[in-house]
Amino acid sequence: MKTGARLHFGPLAAGVTSGRQFGGLGVMIEAPGIEVVVQRASQNEILADESWTDRIRNTLDKIGHRLPPSARSGFRVELLKVPPAHCGFGTGTQLALAIAAGVCRAAGQSVPPAFQLAQEIGRGARSALGIHGFDQGGLLLEAGKLPGQAVGCLVARTGLPRDWCWVLVRPRDDVGVSGSEEVSAFSSLPPMSGGLTAELCGLAVREILPAAQAADFPGFARGLWEFGYRVGEYFAPVQGGVFAHPQARSLAAALRKRGVWGVAQTSWGPTLAVIQPHKGEAAELIAWIKREAIGGACDVICTRPLNHGAVIEVDGDPDGRD
To answer: For the chain, which has fewer Cβ within 10 Å, the N-terminal or C-terminal residue?
Structure first.
């Protein structure tokens, strides 16, 4: 089972008392991705770093309830690749969905749509971008969810040009907020204003998505910067600034001086995502970042957009979720 990572550029609403909550704009990328092998076994067996075993066991317990009694004997789960947790990659959701889908297939069952799997394994409390991204890949706009809804509604999806590249810069000394800390952060902020929600929706619908569809790189990059910056201003009181990590703030300022527009934080950070039009420009930018901007204190990689859903391989035969 293989899936990519999710970048989340910010919600469309937060703390509102009526209407849709959360939502947002995000994209699926190839790396850092997840690769997991799920096989039938006499009992559950987990081969993974200890930091992931409880999560995997929890997912196995939840997805097991949807299987017929004859298919509940056990599963062997081997985690081969996984991005770091709480760094803006949507790792928890992608891993849980990958395991759940793998269990269904290994048990000889059909694999439900990701939004259904997500409800069964308890994902999607806030963002549903990674859920829809698991099924479809691409650039995604989620409207958020109304009270009582389990998973936010996807309203638009488009692929990104294959030539475009994402440069990801992740400070090694920090992670983004999560769990109870995330709940506290949201509760300490005032409701996002209707004006800001309208501005973010306008940027997504009138600038960013059309630019992606038209392969208009300058338009996409400028729209992404503006979207991310406006979201960052809203979260600045709880994350210390428009960007959560001091190195990310310094790097973003240096990139803007260099004339680079397409810069945005993913989720609570600390990872910074920078869109580039070609692999050559991305390589030059990475060399400059390592040489002049951040030294060796960050992991820097180049990755491509992921324009298709997760892939299930059965005995080496890929069964794509396009």
So the answer is: C
